[in-house]
């Protein structure tokens, strides 16, 4: 018969907004008087950012600018995984920041267990880095979303690919 209603639980930042935020941050840093003559910048490759600055203090300032631009463009800061800063010569620092993409398997299992424990009439399947939730009733799917939203607060989740 007809496929049952379903949706996917995913974890992905909007790549376009990430790129826009970084461009805006670099523009602001380039124009700021306190960064004159400095090599401070943010490089973006795929899902990985590298923040460069002349010293530890400036590194923090670059990150502040970056975070402000992300917030302004609706990119949740919980997507960012920040590594320990490294010295790359003199006082010059760099720091890797990864933009999380995809639901890690441990979290996927946590979500599956959460829905099972709630005894909701849904079936769950881990498919790559999303969790697919299927149920006969749309109301039940709405309940599942509310439950997961309340139960997972450490990672920003998106609910997508709704099929009726």
Please tell me about this protein's structure:
The chain is an alpha+beta fold and 164 residues long. The chain has helices spanning 15-31, 56-72, 105-117, 138-151; strands at 6-10, 41-45, 48-53, 80-82, 86-87, 93-99, 122-127, 130-135, 158-163. Strands 2, 3, 4, 5 and 6 form a five-stranded antiparallel beta sheet that branches. Helix 1 crosses helix 2 (56-72). The chain is elongated. The two termini are 13 Å apart. The model has no long low-confidence stretch (mean pLDDT 94).
Share of residues in helices = 25-40%
- Give the terminus-to-terminus CA distance: 13 Å
Pattern of helices and strands: EHEEHEEEHEEHE
**Rg for CA atoms:** 20 Å
- How many separate helices? 4
Largest sheet: 5 strands, antiparallel
SS strand fraction: 25-35%
How is this structure best summarized?
It is built from 4 helices and 9 strands. It has helices at 15-31, 56-72, 105-117, 138-151; strands at 6-10, 41-45, 48-53, 80-82, 86-87, 93-99, 122-127, 130-135, 158-163.
Present the secondary structure layout.
Blueprint: E1 6-10, H1 15-31, E2 41-45, E3 48-53, H2 56-72, E4 80-82, E5 86-87, E6 93-99, H3 105-117, E7 122-127, E8 130-135, H4 138-151, E9 158-163
Antiparallel strand pairs: 1-8, 1-9, 2-3, 3-6, 4-6, 5-6, 7-8
Helix pairs in contact: 1-2
